[in-house]
Amino acid sequence: MPEEMAMTQPTNAVTPRSAVGPSLAKLVSHIPAEQHWRRQADALIVIGRQMELMAQEQGRSAQVMLGTLRFSLFRMHQGRIAQLAPHCQSVTVYGEADVAPPDIPGVTFVSVPPGAPMSQEWFLVVDSPGFWGALIAHASQDRADGAARRYLFDGVLTTDERVVSRASLLLSLASGKGATVTAERDAMANQARWGHLAYSLVTHPEAQRLELLGCLVDMADIHALLSVPSFGLDTMGPEAMKVLRRYCGTLGEVLYRAEGTNLVPVAWGNAQRPPSQPISTGAAGHAFTQGSLVLNRLQATDPEQALFNNANSMSAIPLFVSGSPWGVLLVGQPDYDPEKSLTTTATVGIAAMLEQVIEANPSAAIAPVGAPAYTPPPAAPAYTPPPAAPAYTPPPAAPAYTPPPAAPAAPAYMAPPAAPAYTPPSQPSFPSQPAGGVFPSSPASPGSPAAPPMPIMPTAPALPPRPSILSPQNNQTSTFGLPTWMRSQGQGAPGTPAAPPAEGPSVRSWPVLRQRLFSSLVAYDQQAAEQVWSEACAVYSPEQICNELLTPVQIEIGNGWHRGEVSVASEHFSSRFVQSKLLSLFNSSTDHINGPTAIVACAQGELHEIGAIMISLFLRWGGFHVIYLGQNVPNSTIEEMVAQLNPQVLALSAATVAAANGLIAASQIIAQLPSPRPFFVFGGLAFWDREDLRNRVQNGFYFQGDVRQIARIVAEQMNKNA
Predict the structure, then answer these.
(1) What is residue 581's three-state secondary structure?
(2) How far apart are the C-alpha atoms of 487 and 496, rounded to whole Å?
(3) Would residue 632 be called left, alpha or beta, if left means φ above 0 and alpha means ψ between -120 and 50 degrees?
(4) Least crowded by CB within 10 Å, which of 120, 177, 407, 499?
(5) How many other C-beta atoms are found inside a 10 Å radius of the C-beta of residue 340?
(6) 136 within 8 A of 28, measured Cβ to Cβ
(7) What is the pLDDT of residue 405?
(8) With contact defined as beta carbons under 8 Å apart, do 500 and 467 qualify?
């Protein structure tokens, strides 16, 4: 798909001058232009996904407000939002009502008038006592040669409490609700969580392509620290000292690491290296041994006075790696009251990122100054060659070769008996897939314009969040995204803990699994996609998973690509995931070495493998000895390959017209082979609606549709030829 189709044009793309209504973009108009950015929709989805995960862990205290331009574009968020809703105080979706919204428990849909400012704004606002932030972007046309090429988004990602509070109020009023009051906010918890979230964004697999680092420019300290060329502690440590001084207002900085009974400095902001100190002394030692934040006013008798002679207070923040104390970040501050200091809050965010750097790169943690010098091992003794071997005496000549008697002819191939129907273990039957498409459409509201089909989400409760040692347990406040010292102290946002949603049989019905996998893949969320895969494998057979999950989701993502709602990168990410799962199933399946041989390959010039892998898998399950050759098999190798392997079946796949022409040339080569020639099967998207291409293939059998049926027909043909 060309890049210019990355986003379909919203209804009434140009806002009429007479259009009235609230606008979130106006709330961030005061933010300097250099802190705004322009990105494609993929970047907004990835950022939004990370914010949703953080909101999901806030113990039913989070209010989530999502704007998707129009309801038909909500489909790419539907699975995630259905999971999110049971864990939040409220979830509200805003957009132009071009289709009827799905019925999702706990989610309120608010219609935006066509042409109103909010119908052109993509936003996600999360407001809770322990985590808040706003992603606000306005859809804009990117023009080339005077013609609209695609839609990009001019946006801002901000943690400004005033912007978030005003956005929450504005959206509450727009939905007809009264103003909501957020409980007392925990600024340190929010800063720590944003440090966690920012690191997750810049280490995301798509971070470079989507330029996610540039979306953090409104958070100057976080952006500056994450702009370093490498994330090893030898780079991040010294840079963190500079960032603390320049952006957070510290008046002295030392990063200590514990070595035996001492705290040894590994990075510092002053010109002179500070001395090591015993773990049992000073504010840093107290923070390390107690595993808690230490905030003190500086006194003339404090040992830290020599380090921070211009400071009035200090903060000592313990750092943990894998749950164990690692060291301490000690800073001096200009404020007399460190508990109310903005410097303390900002330093907590930097410390949270340093913890993640050390956790992710334990081998890159720099050795502190003063560590024992390396002592090389003693030299190995000089090499003494072994004595010469005795002269070689050839063995007596072997007797003349006598060929064994000819093996009896192999019996005619019989297709294996059909496997018994799979019955899910002790669960009620799941609702069957409705007719009319992979993701059936919702009924459109009267008078609404035609729109692409909307996926239906059953009214089943969503799955609980993925297990995590940071998840709230035993009715405790959520500590997700907080440093270990904050979790151990029970700090974090107050709020009512979320009761785990009841899990019913429909939670793992095919429509729910399909929608969850679709949403995970378009958001590049590998972990969530793997979770769906694991749940499906625990309940269903591999054959069912291929037909009811992987194939429908891949088709729907392809349809979204054609409609311009799914980007090229999302389609590639999805294809890679599906292909990896199919190859895993194929490599772990039993190959019937005594069955008829089937060679499956992608035609010359074809790089798309999913269809070929799928037919290989079902042929192997049907009793064939399958040899899968992969993509782009040259026509020049076909004659030699058939002569060497003597296959009974040869299957080629082509998804593009160029590859289809290569397949047509291959069919001419196969038609000239001496008898017995293999049973030649071909297929692929290139032939789907091109009868002219199908007619040019010589002596080939074209099949489309259910892969199970194709494998069955091939097996029946083998029995006829036996």
Answers:
(1) helix
(2) 17
(3) left
(4) 407
(5) 11
(6) yes
(7) 41
(8) no
CATH of 507-581, one of 2.80.10.50, 1.10.1240.10, 1.20.1560.10, 3.30.420.40: 1.10.1240.10
Q: Which residue has the tokens 């046309």?
A: 141
What is the assigned CATH class of domain 233-364? alpha beta
CB 470 within 8 A of CB 481: yes
Tell me the domain boundaries of the chain: 3-215, 233-364, 507-581, 589-721
Per-residue pLDDT at 511: 85
Contact in structure between 597 and 575 (CB atoms under 8 Å) = no
Greatest mean pLDDT among 186-190, 388-392, 540-544 lies in: 186-190
Parallel/antiparallel/unpaired status of strands 324-333 and 313-321: antiparallel
Helix (H, G, I), strand (E, B) or coil at 403: coil
Q: Check if CATH label 3.30.870 holds for domain 3-215.
A: yes
Model pLDDT, residue 305: 86
Enter the tokens of residue 94. 């805003």
Q: Say how many C-beta atoms besides its own lie within 10 A of residue 278's C-beta.
A: 11
Name the residue among 181, 83, 174 with its Cα closest to residue 123.
174
Q: Which of 158, 133, 193 is nearest to 480 (CA)?
A: 193
| Confidence bin at 278 (pLDDT 50/70/90) | very high
| Residues listed for the chain | 722
Token duo for residue 188:
């340190």
CA distances from 565 to 42, 73, 289, 452, 656 (A): 10, 7, 53, 10, 22
Fill in the amino acid letter for 625: H
Q: List the structure tokens of 710.
A: 């194709």
Q: Which two tokens stand for residue 509?
A: 């019905």
Query: Quick one: tokens of 271?
Result: 């010109």
- 525: its two tokens: 């969320």
Asked if residues 222 and 349 have their Cβ atoms less than 8 Å apart, the reply is yes
Write the DSSP symbol of residue 264: E
> Within 13 Å, how many C-alpha atoms sit on residue 58's CB side?
33
Between CA 432 and CA 435 the distance in angstroms is 9
Amino acid 489: pLDDT: 54
Q: Tokens 């060929």 appear where? A: 403
Which region among 35-44, 77-86, 233-242, 399-408 has the lowest average model confidence (pLDDT)? Answer: 399-408
Half-sphere exposure of 480 (CA within 13 A, CB side): 21
For residues 550-560, average pLDDT = 84
In angstroms, the CA 662 to CA 607 distance is 12
Fold exhibited by the domain 589-721: Rossmann fold (3.40.50)
Distance (Å, rounded) from C-alpha 659 to C-alpha 109? 46
User: What is the per-residue pLDDT across 337-385, written as a single tens digit (0 to 9) for each?
Assistant: 888 889 999 999 999 999 988 888 765 444 443 333 333 344 444 444 4
Rounded mean pLDDT, 581-600: 90
Is 50 exceeded by the pLDDT of residue 473?
A: no
Pure H helices in 651-690: 657-671
Interaxial angle between packed helices 41-56 and 187-202, expressed in degrees from 0 to 180 and rounded to the nearest 10: 140
CA 542 vs. chain centroid, Å, equals: 23
Give the pLDDT of residue 594. Answer: 87
Query: What is the C-alpha separation between 601 and 171, in angstroms, rounded?
Result: 55
Q: How far apart are CA 549 and CA 535, in angstroms?
A: 12
Q: Which position has the higher pLDDT, 316 or 507?
A: 316
Backbone angles phi, psi at 607, to 5 degrees: -110, -10
